[in-house]
Specification:
This protein has about 325 residues and is α/β, with parallel strands linked by helices. It contains 12 helices and 15 strands. Helix 4 packs across helix 11. The protein is globular and about 60 Å long. The two termini are about 20 Å apart. The mean pLDDT is about 95.
Amino acid sequence: MQAWRVYENGEPGAVMRREEVEPPAPGEGQVLLRVRAANVNFPDALLCRGHYQVRPPLPFTPGVEVCAETEDGRRVITTAALPHGGFAEYTLADAAGLLPAPDALDDAEAAALHIGYQTGWFGLHRRAALKEGETLLVHAAAGGVGSAAVQLGKAAGATVIGVVGGPEKAAVARTLGCDLVIDRRSEDVVAAVKAATGGRGADVIYDPVGGEAYQQSAKCVAFEGRIVIVGFASGTVPAPALNHALVKNYSILGLHWGLYAAKDPASITRCHETLTGYAAKGLIKPLIGERVPFARAADAVQRVADGTTTGRLVVLPEGVHA
């Protein structure tokens, strides 16, 4: 089968190699899946660089999220079992982690549903307890992670403010349903949020960026607001001033969605049922920026690493046009 493999850590565009290899053999509790679509996530870039919290043995195939087909023909979504990731014709996954792909979504959309939307739902509801009528601020609102949070925030009845970088991404954020879009390149984010909220600030802030975005969040979070830390796409891990959190009465909440698989796996199934229902009603629909041919997988991961993409890039195996 064809697979992209990484033999040394570095930038995805430089270290990912396309090869002909044997299909992987399932271990105990695992299943072999035929990949129908593999979503590109920022962790794929971190895996290539050797900067992710999980470091699979070299060589490995990146691609942590897939829509795939079981041997008995079922269409499923799941996280791939590294080192045999999803940028290949076949991948491995834990049998217990298979979830039915929603009928309302095609293969590329289904591949982009799992991690980003589960992270968004757990972050907004389980961690931050977002309430109808509250104001939600989403950093990188036109990206894969941010766009999911925007849709979930609107589904929850929140007023959603999206922060983006550049007019093209601002246009995308508006189509996603943001009530207000702030272009951080040409506007003062803190001043704009305070102006839009009558000086109160945002009740919940969803931050997959870190760095300067976090500093902005701390300055415009409301009394008893909640800042949800999802990731550090900026490459800078902030050091929060806890005295500031005390003075303003706000919460800083961490979210590592992968822990739920070990600590509370039933909650993932319940969340998926909720998301499937949302998809059927048209409340959520993954924003696919591009359906990428298999031959360009390394370039797609590099573009996500560089932060130049809008929505999700999804890699399709040869002969698949989902």
